[in-house]
Amino acid sequence: MINPVRVRFAPSPTGGLHLGGVRTVLFNYLFAKKHGGTFVLRIEDTDQTRFVEGAEAYIFDCLDWTGLTPDESPLRPGDYPPYRQSERKPMYRQYADQLIAQGNAYYAFDTSEELEAMRNNLKTPENPSPQYDHKTRKQMRNSLTLPEAEVEALINAGTPYVVRIKMPENETVHFHDLIRGDISHETNVVDDKVLLKSDGMPTYHLAVVVDDYLMNITHAFRGEEWLPSAPVHIMLYKYLGWEAEMPKWAHLPLILKPDGNGKLSKRDGDRLGFPVFAMDWADPKTGETTKGFKEIGFLPEAFINMLAMLGWSSGTEQEIFSLEQLEQLFSIERVNKGGAKFDYEKAKWFNQQHIQRADNSRLAILVKPFMEAAGIAIDDLSKLDQVIGMVKERCHLLGDFVQQAGFFFKAPEILDIDAIKGKWNEDKTKVMTEWVASLDNIAWEHDVLEQSLTDIAAAHNVKKGEVMMPLRVMLVGGKFGPGVFDIALFIGKEAIQARVKSSLAALA
RNA sequence: GCCGCGUUGGUCAAGGGGUUAAGACGCCUCCCUUUCACGGAGGAAUCACGGGUUCGAUUCCCGUACGUGGUACCA
User: Fold this and answer.
1) In this structure, how many other beta carbons lie within 10 angstroms of the beta carbon of residue A495?
2) Does a structural domain hold residue A82?
3) How many domains does chain A have?
4) Closest protein residue to B6 using CA and C1' atoms?
């Protein structure tokens, strides 16, 4: 292999890490692993007005949780530092200068008011959003329209300016997308994007090209929303003389909201009751916390698996994969073109499937905090371990264990008494009272417990079946859970007696 | 508006000139289980539309519709 694969994920640290972001990380990571390459994390913090305290650390936390650890990052620099664009600021200017010298870019002095005025004046029903492009740049205040001496004077006087790319006229830009095939754009409809902002920072357009080139990135994967600006990036590679080193592109499909249409947003999650961020995100400005997949009870491997299947498939019937398997099987060509609606029900199914495959002892550690948050103390992890083995098949989220296993450790607070009340009678009260008393001197075995109940019921002309469900409700609180006698065995004589006694009182 | 991209059941999807158009989630029925769940057996449900090309199009081409993204000194 001539060029070792190098891919990058380049988030801007402005808030919670979205599902779609994690999927982009995942596809980058899998591609790197598949090809024995390097996965780079680069922080895109060129917009200083959007800086959010803690957002970068949060991204690292999310990557740690998912296990999608970058090989190179601001925390683990490789051979191409720095890994934050704000720290790379001095590197961009020379390329902007080069483009200006070549006539491929120009200075623009228009103030935001002037830009707004231009857009307002040129706005028509047919063209609601006029661009700063080959047609309009001739009417603006830039180094294309102003005399050279004036441009120089303005710059010397410290007048704020930006550098814009000068898009050529009447050209067609072609490129090959690994997922979508050949794509072309007419340069006439692409605007003269700002390359260098007035604060000296590059925009995404300049930064992504310069950084990818300087960092030897071989494959650039990003969301579909970048497709319209791809021609700008392609032109930049050409103008800078880097065409041979241009990474191969792949524009990933979007993750859509489950109902209606459009990109999935945090709002949709709030509205429909599911997380959108990988982990809890506490916004330092509003103080508000948004739930994450981790905290709602997802296993990281399930989260990853679910995301992989949202837009990619192996071509086989298999749907449950470990990260290691995905690393072997992934191919960017098998990623779908169309956007995928997010389905929370299926996401939970993936989690349920991975819960079944997970070690009980590991689950016990993860479930404990959920129990404790619900006021159920766990002082013996091995007991929780044992219980998890009994109930895991009915849990979709780690939090489900509270409902499904809490009663093993603590008497249920609410009893579904209505489920048994209607058909309750004195005889049954006698059966339960006698059985509970008999517990003091019988062998503590499943079958013995069951036989004892059968016999006592028979003595009062009650069928065992009539008393099984009531016993379950008394012990667990409702019509669910593993075998009643398995539960009875586990919680012990005193707990049984106490729960039956208080239930009988509620029935009376 | 303009430009780009997309479109296989409700959802995720396989397939890709001739197939009974896989599979999964969800839904429904039944079996298992003195509960629930798991598991098992079934069921309803799909190639956006119109033109070509072709002996034959879900598949290839062209339109249309619809959706979506972009149209910032945000990424």
Assistant:
1) 18
2) yes
3) 4
4) A338
According to DSSP, the β-strands at A105-108 and A6-9 are unpaired
Instruction: Pull the structure tokens for residue A89.
Output: 């600021």
CATH of the domain at A394: 1.10.8.70
Q: Which nucleotide is nearest to A131 (CA to C1')?
A: B71
Q: Note the pLDDT of residue A2.
A: 63
Question: What single DSSP character describes residue A262?
Answer: S
Residue A1 has pLDDT above 60, yes or no: no
Which residue's alpha carbon is at the shortest distance from the C1' of B15?
A315
Active site residues of A: 266
**Co-location of A285 and A390 in the same domain:** no
A477 within 8 A of A412, measured Cβ to Cβ: yes
Domain of A495, CATH number, reads 1.10.10.350
> What CATH number corresponds to the domain at position A117?
3.90.800.10
Q: What domain range is A376 assigned to?
A: 359-408
Domain match, A240 and A104 both: yes
Read off φ and ψ for residue A342, nearest 5 degrees.
-75, 130
Reported as a single tens digit per residue, the pLDDT across A266-298 is: 999 999 999 999 999 999 988 999 999 999 999
Q: Can you tell me the ipTM of this complex?
A: 0.95
> What are A146-160's pLDDT values in tens digits?
999 999 999 999 999
